[in-house]
Amino acid sequence: MSARRALLTGASGFIGSRLAQRLLDDGWEVHLVLRPDSAGDALPAAGPRLHLHRHDGSTTQLVEIMRAAAPQAVFHLASLFLAQHQVTDVERLVQANLLFGTQLAEAMAQCGVRLLVNTSTAWEHYEDGDYNPVCLYAATKHAFSALLRYYVECHGLRVATLKLFDTYGPGDTRPKALNLLKRIANEGSSLAMSPGEQLIDLVYIDDVLDAFLQAWQLLANGGQAAAMAEYGVSSGAPLALRALAELYSQASGKPLNIEWGGRPYRPREVMVPWTRYQTVPGWQPKVTLAEGLARFHHG
């Protein structure tokens, strides 16, 4: 029996690289779509079931890649994340989060590929709104979902969109709060932070990968009733940044020198995460925060 085939975007990022490795470990043949300038440091080691495709930016070439890969599953994780954008960022945000995704959906439609696990963000739902984007990045992710509706209705795509909360794990070098805490713990330095009352919802990387695979399994088995569904990938137990810092101090065994209130909250700071989401049926997080923080610190 031949291996299942997946096409994956965003494999140069933290979550995408881990998902690519997980798929390989599970026996999949994996096709990665990368920009010509994407770094290969985080990619899985070369092997007979791993195929790299450098996308030249055109829709026609992406159709050729899709046809060659002939995947049973497409996992779309590529994006440009900017918590706050500058004027010069607008073109990059639209290209990465709208144009490329639309090219991907078009390639699927042209090649008869139907099952897509898409990635978005809980930041589409500021102050628990049905749609209230925290930033332009979140607005572009929502706009892509609107574009996907065309491919669902007219070309038979079936889409599960995972809206991620905060994610973390060993080897994560993204400029997030946990890495700031790790740095001052290891260096013994100090850090000015906001007052720290915002709630953080952290999901460990292994649980995030489980959610992606469970979402695909639902699509493949017909277990997702709607052709287009959205799921929140949440720990279900957010906690204040101050409390997170205390837990991290315990996990690392080191004191943290933090000046709480030393910097203001950023514009549209998410104080309380989105709550009105549906969880991926059959999925729940398994790694406790204490266990995950210990792995993160030592990883």
TrEMBL record:
<dbReference type="Pfam" id="PF01370">
    <property type="entry name" value="Epimerase"/>
</dbReference>
<feature type="domain" description="NAD-dependent epimerase/dehydratase">
    <location>
        <begin position="6"/>
        <end position="222"/>
    </location>
</feature>
<dbReference type="InterPro" id="IPR050177">
    <property type="entry name" value="Lipid_A_modif_metabolic_enz"/>
</dbReference>
<dbReference type="InterPro" id="IPR036291">
    <property type="entry name" value="NAD(P)-bd_dom_sf"/>
</dbReference>
<protein>
    <submittedName>
        <fullName>NAD-dependent epimerase/dehydratase family protein</fullName>
    </submittedName>
</protein>
<dbReference type="InterPro" id="IPR001509">
    <property type="entry name" value="Epimerase_deHydtase"/>
</dbReference>
